[in-house]
Structure formats: C-alpha cells, structure tokens
Amino acid sequence: MMNIVQACGVVAKGKGDAIVVATMLSMFIFDRIEGADGTATGVPLVGGKAGLVLGLGMAKAKTLLSPAAAQAAKGSTAQRINSVPLMGGAAGLALGLALAQPHKRVIVMDGDASLLMELGGLATVATQRPRNLLHCVVNNGTQFSGLDNMKLPTSDFQFAEVASKAGYVHAERISDGAAWAERFPKLLAMDGPVFAELMVETMPQQTKDGFEQTELPLNQYTRMGDEALAMQAWLAQEAGA
Predict the structure, then answer these.
(1) For residue 144, which phi and psi values (nearest 5 degrees)?
(2) Cα 217 from Cα 197, distance rounded (Å)
(3) 81-85, 106-110, 195-199: the lowest-pLDDT one
(4) Which residues, in sequence order, are CB contacts of 97 under 8 Å at separation 6+?
(5) What architecture is the 4-59+72-204+218-240 domain classified under in CATH?
(6) In the chain, where the domains are located
(7) Mean pLDDT computed over 209-219
(8) Considering only CA atoms, which of 82, 100, 203, 90 is closest in space to residue 142?
(9) Which of 16, 41, 55, 141 is the most buried (most CB within 10 A)?
C-alpha cells in the first residue's frame, strides 16, 4: 500500500490549476507538505512508514527554514477548500464546484469514513455527470487516523466497485504509490466523473498512555468559511484574467 504522503503528494505535485476539496486527514497532510505555491515540490514520495516519516519530516524542515512555506502551512492556498467539519459533504461540495466551474478540473480527496456517511452522494454525482470531476477516496480503514484509529464499521468496502455501479464513467482501485503517480495525470485528464480508490496504510496510533492532544489553532474553527471566500476571490480573478 501507499502512505498518505504519497497519496496527497501526487495530487499536490500534479494538480496544476485544479480546485481541490479535502477531508480532515488529507487536509492536515496538505497543510504540512504544500509550499507557498500550493505544490509539494521537494517532499519525497517514498513508500512505507519510513517514507511517511521522511516526507513529513522534510515538510516540517521546509516550514522551519522558509517563512513563505511556514505561512502556507498555516492554512490552505486559494485552490483548496476543506470540508471540515462538514463530514460526509466532500463529494457534494466538489460536485457543486465542478458544475459551477465547468472549465476547471475539480479533485476531491475524500475519506473512507466520510464517504460511508453519504454513499448516496455517489449516485448524485453520477446522475449529474460532471466531466471535470476526479473523486478520490483515501481508504485506510480507520477514522481519526493517526490518533485513535477507530475502525470503520465495515471491512474492505469496495468503494470503486460501488462508484462504478452508481454510474461513474470510470472507477479503479490503486494500491501502489508509483502506480498512483503514473495514473493520476491520466485520470485527471479523463472525461468524468472518474473515481479512484486509494489503498493507504493506516498511520501509527498516537493515543497511548501519556499522549496529549495538541490544541488546534483558532483558524481551524473558521477556516472553511475563510477558504470559501479566498477561493471565490481567486476564481473571480481567474475569470477576469
């Protein structure tokens, strides 16, 4: 399986001017690995837990050494909006953006627990048939990954198969990081909706004896609204360019 830095890093490196919608785990990873320009340039996308530690370590070092990268890591670039705390709403949010911005590609980095809450969203997306939507789901079998790692209520749910049956134009399951890097630009270029189920290793659990939850910055409670305003301004600027 790939790790979460590989899953998100491929998107950050190759998204171009696409809009990105992310759920909580991907949001935190994007926050860590994206530089001031919104890409993950310089972050190694190496497999396994060692690769996860290396990738996050390199990303942290970049923010310590670069004021611009540190500023970017405090929140999203204008191209990304995070559906937190709208758990289960990522697909619907991405669908709305895809329909409103038909000339831009839209990528959603959904979570397995999040998508399970709103499986009907797959049918809604398939019915609307947005040609510019790439719907990815991070399938690591847990909720609150990297913290308590709560198991999903179902094991080995076949998200890609369900998306295909719901009516997505193309759906596939990808387990290998190198394969994901090779497939991503091709999937992004396809007429959609396209679905990619990314099989991702569970992050190491932190909630053990002596663990203390890091206090979330205040902007975590307002960031979705702030991101919506920033994206609105960015899209307006793009339209007027």
Answers:
(1) 55, 50
(2) 31
(3) 81-85
(4) 19, 21, 81, 106
(5) 3-Layer(aba) Sandwich (3.40)
(6) 4-59+72-204+218-240
(7) 58
(8) 203
(9) 55
**Taking a C-beta distance cutoff of 8 angstroms, is the pair 30, 43 a contact?**
no
- State pLDDT tens for residues 103-130: 999 999 999 988 988 889 999 999 999 9
CB-based contact 21:94 (threshold 8 Å): yes
Residue 21 identity:
V
Tokens of 208: 């053990």
SS3 175: coil
Q: Which helix (H) or strand (E) holds 128?
A: helix 120-128
Residue 121 one-letter amino acid: G
* Beta pairing partners, 170: 194
Separation between Cα atoms, residue 128 and residue 18, nearest integer Å? 19
DSSP secondary structure code for residue 218 in this structure? G
- Across the strands, what pairs with 108? 21, 135
- Please give the model's pTM, rounded to 2 decimal places: 0.85
Mean pLDDT of the chain: 83
> Which residue spans within 152-209 are E strands per DSSP?
170-174, 194-199
More confident residue, 214 or 211: 214
Structure tokens at 147: 């913290």
User: For residue 19, which of 219, 179, 234 has the smallest C-alpha distance?
Assistant: 234
Tokens representing residue 235 in the block: 């899209």
Selected residue with higher pLDDT from 10 and 153: 10
